[in-house]
Each structure stands twice: as structure tokens, then as C-alpha cells.
Design brief:
By secondary structure, the chain is mainly α. The chain has 8 helices and 2 strands, in the order H-H-H-H-H-H-E-E-H-H. The protein has a two-stranded antiparallel ribbon. Helix 1 (5-17) crosses helix 2, helix 1 (5-17) packs across helix 4 (45-62) and helix 5 runs antiparallel to helix 7. The chain is extended and about 90 Å long. The mean pLDDT is 86.
């Protein structure tokens, strides 16, 4: 069964933010029932298949796959502050920073520091702050991606007693009690 025009539009809109309710609204469904319609659309085999095909097509177009993501996570993990700072803790010129630092830097703040007021006011320095990616979060994502199970909670299960043995012990305790 072919998708209706509204369903095709829903598929296209869903790819924008993976939000079924908003996709339904943008596709022209009623705002009042958009949540329900979006959920129902995702459960329809022909729509879910169309979404999968559209996502696969997009991944091929932009060439982003699991290898791409893993490579970027590894690049972030290997960032070294010595690549951007001199021994006196001053920053190297931006043009000397490796591409990884330029791509993954989360924030860069510059604050001018002044002394005095009015005409006697003069700049006495600059304060520079950088914020780089969260290395712990990055390692967690890497660990999950390559399935090293480094961050999985471990649960110990003791299965030395069978259910029938446990029931027999429970009966014994009940008759003695």
C-alpha cells in the first residue's frame, strides 16, 4: 500500500528532529491529535519502512555512519592541551591549533581586564578561558560504541539452588515455625 501525501510529508518532517508529534503537526495533522497520530504513524509498517529507507539514504548522502562517529570520538579522546598552549600557559595562535581542537572546542571566552575609572582606566590584561569536550562522557560513548562494557552495571546472580530446592527449604521453615 502506497503512502498518502500526508504520510510522505510526515516521513520527511520526522527526519528533521525525530519528534513524531512535531512531524505530525508540520505534516498538517491536527495539533490536538498530533501526539496520537504521530505515535500511530510510527507503528504503521509502511511508514516505519519509509522512515528507515529515508534515514539510510540520508546516511549514505552525508557519509555519516558508525565508523564516522567512532573516529570523531577517538579524535576527541586524543586531544592534548599541549597542542594549543605554550609552556608559560599562553595560547598558541589559532592558526597553529590542530584541526581537532578547532572543530571540537566547546567554548572560548575572552575578558578584558581594566584598572581605574574614567580617563584613568586602562586595560591591564586579558583573561582567556577555553572549554573542551567532556572527556569522561566521550569515553563513556566510546565504551558503549565498541561494546567494551566498561560502563555497564554488573549484577551477580547466584543460581546454585534450583527452584524446587528453595521451595523445599521454605516448606521446612514453615513447618518448623
Amino acid at each position: 500500500m502506497a503512502l498518502t501525501q500526508k504520510q510522505r510529508l510526515f516521513v520527511d518532517e520526522y527526519l528533521i528532529d525525530l519528534n513524531a508529534t512535531q512531524a505530525a503537526i508540520r505534516a498538517g495533522y491536527s495539533k490536538r491529535t498530533a501526539g496520537q497520530i504521530g505515535d500511530e504513524n510510527l507503528k504503521k509498517p509502511q511508514i516505519s519502512q519509509a522512515i528507515k529507507e529515508a534515514m539510510d539514504s540520508r546516511s549514505k548522502r552525508v557519509q555519516i555512519n558508525a565508523d564516522y562517529v567512532l573516529n570523531r570520538l577517538v579524535e576527541i579522546d586524543q586531544l592534548d592541551v599541549l597542542d594549543i598552549l605554550r609552556d608559560d600557559m599562553s595560547f598558541k595562535p589559532l592558526s597553529e591549533w590542530p584541526k581537532g581542537w578547532r572543530q571540537y572546542l566547546v567554548g572560548f571566552d575572552i575578558a578584558e581586564m581594566f584598572e581605574g575609572t574614567g580617563e584613568d582606566r586602562s586595560m591591564v590584561g586579558l583573561m582567556k578561558k577555553i572549554k573542551w569536550p567532556d572527556k569522561v562522557k566521550n569515553l563513556e560513548l566510546l565504551g558503549k560504541h565498541v561494546a567494551v562494557s566498561a560502563f555497564r552495571e554488573q549484577v551477580e546472580v547466584n543460581v546454585t539452588h534450583t527452584l524446587s530446592e528453595r521451595m523445599a527449604k521454605a516448606r521446612e521453615r514453615a513447618s518448623n515455625g
